[in-house]
């Protein structure tokens, strides 16, 4: 899993944490930790007015890439963050590859967009700030918080001890500071721009068959309007390799619905929460079996070929095979 490179710092506030030793502000902490890209962006967008000031503060930020930005000195990054022309030049040049490897969720054109639009950048940064102290040991499964943009951030706590926020894994310890708490996370948090149904409908090069069958099987509506769900989404090739079965299913909508529901789990299972041997109860009533091995993650006999597509009502994992519940 490519989680090592993007180190984001999530931050929380305000002043009222008891027994604090560390009197640094969030901004100072980010600088001291060498989170130079993030602290540069924070200054460049004016968020330092919040995160640097103990009196005002309320925050919970999350950002950026220790490993990735290690090669750039911090004064240069702060300079870049405050000069979008220069930043754009750098991003378009040699740095862009490095950065996009680090932030898998951020396509390079989006990074350039953020670098040249401080309103958009500020919005992304604010997406990582919560106006409340959040200590990870007290986070419970399905807790939600509103970030500074008013969007919902959802925590998941899995049996294997992994904690995620909108799919990004909380890494290491909480850093309690003068005006908040910083949490390191392993990815950039972005507000998903579609729900599960919309994502499938909009990606017809991969999911034309799945989309059509979900509509016929009357499962498309729920995937658009309710949740949260985990959808194991077979690509078109998977349906094309069992054409005769698909024809039978189309002629028997009860059977179609049964098979489709076997691909949907109520609740959000990011891949970090999936463990070998785990059973996931599906909407069909039968359990899927997860296996995690050297060749990746499998769901029954289907291989996960793209994991963790974030949506506003859950997560999609793309699989290479249609899974069928064994007869009772
Ligand atoms: C911003 O960067 C560009 C390109 O490096 C440079 O020409 C310009 O003078 C800089 N502007 C400021 C205000 O520093
Ligand atoms: C900058 O980003 C904001 C927020 O995403 C957007 O509304 C605005 O249109 C963008 N401005 C430009 C010039 O692209
Ligand atoms: C349709 O499928 C259901 C569930 O698999 C099965 O119980 C039923 O007998 C099938 N109906 C027909 C007409 O084959």
From TrEMBL:
Source species of the chain: Elysia marginata
Occurrences of domain FAS1 (ranges): 22-189, 194-323
One GO cellular component term: extracellular space
Signal peptide bounds: 1-19
UniProt entry tagged with the keyword Transcription regulation: no
One protein family per Pfam: Fasciclin
Keywords annotated in UniProt: Signal
Protein name, UniProt field: Transforming growth factor-beta-induced protein ig-h3
